Amino acid sequence: MFKIEDDVIYITRGDNAVLEVTAYIDDEQHEQYTLEEGDYYTLTVRKVASDISPVILQIPSTNGRIVIQNEDTANAEVGKYSADIQLTTASGDRYTIWPKFDVTKPSKEYNFKNFCIMPEVTRV
Question: Could you tell me the pTM of the whole model?
Answer without folding.
Answer: 0.89
